[in-house]
Amino acid sequence: MEDFHARQELAGSSETSSDIDKLSISNEYGKVSAMRLQFLAAEKRRPDQFSVLVRNIPPDPDESVSELVEHFFLVNHSNTYLTHQVVYNANRLAKLVKKESRMQN
C-alpha cells in the first residue's frame, strides 16, 4: 500500500515511470542480495561455497595446467574437490575478486 501512495505522489511530479521502476528494481535487488547473504552466513559451510586460487604452477611437458591442477586436488583433496577453472587473464580475475570482496563487506 505504501508503494502505491509513493507512486501516486511521483505520478504528479516530473519523474517518469521508468525512473520509478528503476528505483523499485534497485531496492528489490538490494533486499534479495541481503537475504541471500544472510542465508549463506547462517548455513553450514560446504565445500562448494569456497574457492582456492592457485598461481605460478610449474610447467610440465606431459600435462596441461588444467590436468596438473585436477590431478593435485583429486589426489590430495578427493573428498571435497568439485571442479576447477583455469584463468589466463589475471586482470579479469582481479576484478572478480574485488567485486566479491565488496559484496562481502
From TrEMBL:
InterPro entries: Csc1-like, CSC1/OSCA1-like_cyt. One of its GO terms (cellular component) is plasma membrane. Residues 49-104 form the CSC1/OSCA1-like cytosolic domain. GO terms for molecular function: calcium-activated cation channel activity. Residues 1-20 are annotated as: Disordered. This is CSC1/OSCA1-like cytosolic domain-containing protein. It comes from Pisum sativum.
